[in-house]
Structures are given as C-alpha cells and as structure tokens.
Amino acid sequence: MIRVEHLVKRYGTNYALDDISFEIKEGEIVGLLGPNGAGKSTTMNILTGYLSTTAGAAYINNVNILDDPIGAKKFIGFLPEQPPVYPDMTVMEYLNFVYELKGCTLEREAHLNEILSVVRIVDVKDRLIKNLSKGYKQRVGIAQALVGDPKIIIFDEPTVGLDPKQILEIRTLMRTLGKNHTVILSTHILAEVQAVCERIIIINKGKIIADERTENLTKTIEDGYRYQAKICGPQKEVKAAIEKLNGVKEVEATGERDGDSFAFRIESERGIDVRKPLFNLCSRMGWPIVGLMPVGTDLESIFIRLVDRDNGVVENSVKRRRAH
Ligand code: ADP
Ligand code: MG
User: Fold this and answer.
1) Boundary (domain end) residue, out of 190, 218, 246
2) Atom of ligand 1 nearest to the CA of 45
3) Reported pTM
4) CA atoms within 13 A on the CB side of 228
C-alpha cells in the first residue's frame, strides 16, 4: 500500500533523511517514533506529497507520489503537525470547505455527519474554530483528514499539547480508525506507539534504527531490565543481600539519600523479573521499600541499546558508555 525506497532529503548540508526505506501493508497501524529533529515530519510530508525528495521515491498503491500527487493524495487523509484549520470558520463551514476542496463525491450530509460523530465534535459543529480548545481543534484537524474516506490516514504528532484526558481520547480514536484504515502516526512518546500501534519504526537522525512488531520491541526494551529502588536499611548490607538474589546481575548503590532510604540501581538477567524476590527479601529483613521504578525506558536509553544491539553489543552497554 505504501512503499518508501531510499528516501533522502537534504537541507543544505544537513541530511534530514538519510536513506529511509520501509513498506506498509493495507490495514497496518504503524508508529513512527523518534526524538525531535529525527525526520518524522519530513517523512510524512514526503509521503503526503507536500515535500519533494532529494533522492529516492515514495509510492502509494504503486503510484509514485511525485508523478501523480493528486492521484496519490486521494488515498490519504493527513493531519499535519500544525492542523490546517481556518479560525474564522465554524466547524461545519470548514468541513464543507474541505469537502469541496477534495472534490468529494460521497453523499455530503451523511458523510460529514458521520465524521462529526466519529471524532465526537457534533456538539461544537456550529462554533467558530478559533473559540475551540486545543483538544477540539485537534479533533477538527482529524475530521478534516477523514473527509473523502481515505484508506490511509497519516497523523503527525496528533497528541502534542493536549491534556492527559484528551490524549487518551485521541489514542482511542486512532485505534478505532485503525480497525478499517491503514494508519501511520508519528510521535516522540514511546508509550503512545506502544498503546496504539502494532508495528514501530524508530528513526533517529534521519535513519531507521528499528522496524519491528510492538511486542518484540517491548521485549527488547524490557530485556535485562533495570530498576531504581529506594530502600530503608543499611546501605552495604542491603546491596550485598540484593546481589545474592537469583537473577540479579548487578547492584549499584547510587549514593542518593532520601530521608532514611538509600537508592540502588538494580540490573537483572534477561527475562527475569526480580521485583517479587526483592520485595520478599526486604520484607524478611525489615527494610521497607519506599520506591521502585524502571529506569532506562526513556527514548535515549532505548536508542543506545538498539544501536548497540545492531552492532552486536548488548550487555552493560549503557554502563560502559557512562564510565567513559
Ligand atoms: P521531526 O518531525 O522528527 O521532529 P523534522 O522532519 O521536522 O523532524 O526535521 C528533521 C531535520 O530536518 C531537523 O534537523 C530539522 O532541523 C531539519 N529541517 C526540517 N525542515 C527544514 C527546513 N525547511 N529547512 C532546513 N532544515 C529543516
Ligand atoms: Mg515533526
């Protein structure tokens, strides 16, 4: 359905995209994950025909987007990073405008009403867009993308700037749309792609560093998991006792103190969850655990691990790097 071959986009001497290739099949929900500046928007703008390429090509249904941008755009609904809404129109006026612009032939009233209800903006349909909250504006942006019932929906950072409740609502909406559309969504939030997408493409500095099913990636991330624990007890003894636990590979007393607790960084062997044995140990010894948090699940740590994994280095890579 979508095929991207060796895409390169250069701005001056800076490579925004440096040889990106991937393929997306009909019905997939794919997340494009990467930090700011990774090249997510550039990729999406090329896919949707808004930006030319320096080299390489993108195909929608085997049609080169640059050869037939209008034909390709018919298959795509796009929510750009800055939603293209007109503040002085009401929601309904705007959707009618988009309907005309796209040359839509579906039965107008039924189609627009269905969109209003899918994105849940029926109650604001006669309000001026400029008077809507950020969350509602974003929904109007999504509604605009759905006009014409495109098979492919592309969302660039759809939850940026929304509050937690709105974020959950938009995620639910994206999952719903994913049931009968091909969806590509970009984000810099790992939890977002984990919640919504079945496949994750990670891009960093214009290159793809991982492209796999969400569950496999999550496994990779959680393999050899690290925790930060705050435990009230004598630092040396606590450290020594945790080190003896089955499955614990390494314990580091970080020296951080919080009241009468000490912080420890605990790394376990692949696939072993040491949280319960840790709890049992501390409970037996009368050392209250006042904090237990996974560490190293931030994007940066994951990037380091994925890049190292590709280079064949897995064990202790983060630690060694820190020591350098
Ligand atoms: P993301 O969406 O992942 O945050 P972008 O695709 O917007 O990343 O940007 C990728 C890189 O290309 C960044 O380094 C950015 O500064 C650069 N870039 C994007 N647009 C332009 C432009 N119009 N002119 C020059 N550099 C640009
Ligand atoms: Mg962007």
Assistant:
1) 218
2) 6
3) 0.80
4) 13
The secondary structure element, H or E, covering residue 33 is strand 29-33
For 48-198, where are the E strands, in sequence order? 55-60, 63-64, 76-79, 152-156, 182-187
Ligand 1, atom 11, lies closest to the CA of 16
Query: Is residue 53 domain-shared with residue 113, that is, in the same domain?
Result: yes
| Residue nearest ligand 1's atom 12 by CA | 16
SS (H, E, C) 78-101: EECCCCCCCCCCEHHHHHHHHHHH
pLDDT in tens, 26-75: 999 999 999 889 999 999 999 998 899 999 999 998 889 988 888 888 89
Q: Is 205 helix (H, G, I), strand (E, B) or coil?
A: coil
Q: How far apart are CA 190 and CA 187, in angstroms?
A: 8
Which amino acid type is present at position 155?
Answer: F
Nearest ligand, CA of residue 37?
1
Q: According to the 3-state scheme, what is the secondary structure of 232-295?
A: CCCHHHHHHHHHCCCCEEEEEEEEEEECCEEEEEEEECCCCCCHHHHHHHHHHHCCCEEEEEEE
Domain extent for 79: 2-218
Same domain? For 160 and 102 the reply is yes
CA of 122 to the centre of ligand 1 (A): 36
